[in-house]
Design a protein that fits this description.
The protein is mostly helical. The chain has a single domain, classed as Na+/H+ antiporter like fold, CATH 1.20.1530.20. Helices cover 77% and strands 0% of the residues. The chain is built from 18 helices and no strands. Helix 1 crosses helix 12 and helix 3 packs across helix 16. It is globular and about 60 Å long. The C terminus is likely disordered.
Amino acid sequence: MTTLIITICVLLLLAYVFDITSSKTKIPSVILLLVLGWAVGQVTTYFEIPIPDLTPTLPVFGTIGLILIVLEGSLELELNRSKFSFLGRTFLVAFLPLLLFSFGLAFAFQYFGGTTLKVGLANAIPFAVISSAIAIPSVQNLGSKNKAFVTYESSLSDIFGVIFFNFIVLNDIIETKSIGYFLLEIIIILIVTFISTIGLALLLSKIKHPVKFAPIILIVVLIYEISKIYNLPALIFILLFGLFMGNLDEMKHIKFIQRLQPDILNKEVHKFKELTTEIAFLIRSLFFLLFGFLIKVSELLNPETIIWAVAITVGIFILRFVFLKLFKQPVRPLVFIAPRGLITILLFLTIPVAQAIGLSNKSLIIQVIILTALIMMVGLMTNKTKDAEEEETKED
């Protein structure tokens, strides 16, 4: 037990070193975490150290990490009228490529895998979603506009991807009735979000006990999981809750918001944001260390899937280039920032057995994640300085 605790502490301290040195090395910390986790796995295998099956813990860390990362990102975002045009472009760049890529890959799975379009979509959607868990931490050294774009885009991509995936997987037949239920679920989660957000804001402003932020985070996770039980798009709640708490200054003129004492609440939100960032770092690090630990060489170097992995990766970046150009966003470095990761793994693990196909397997998932992460790393390493990037963005 002592050895295990020491190992975990050392690994997390190394993860911290990776995080603080990434601005100098330009290597995304997730790449180093995956390599470190894989190396630990090789050591335990070589020395025949008995390790229980840790695969079931991966979705747990992934889900909690997804909640905290989307919450962390939304707390950082400023929401005001001057940004509505920017938000609109980000919304479209997040949604349209996801939709087009999902259907394109689904048709390929249908043609080469001999399956239906619906099953093809269930297996294609995980590859279409940008991982906010990788993208957001990797762009901390970019200019503010590019960083905001990536945060919004990747968070929205996660939300759209999960909603679209659940809609396809949970409905045997796509018809008017199922679309009606889907719209009803959106309305219900918006109502839940409004009530929960106001309630949590009141709790945060009223609790005088020294322990106040941990219960708030636990309630947020609880609401997310209960919403998932009823097939509600729970990430909408996370995003809107974070946006509300992080933008109280923009709503000071509303009488109800004034009752929350926004000046005092803002100080509490700042502390809450710091705690969320700390916990998100720990969970994200554990997830990618664990994922790297579970990677097998045979899966990484599987020749049967490498052509598909390269084709999918090329398709991802070509489509991204086209849409960035179309919506007049700076191509460099944004075109390189389209990693697949945490959400891709989570969706892949939740594909029902009846809808799984041979073409979409763990090897293909791993190879696409590694390839997109490496391309992002090269793009960030060859990127201009932050100041130069800011000037280029302003000129656009």
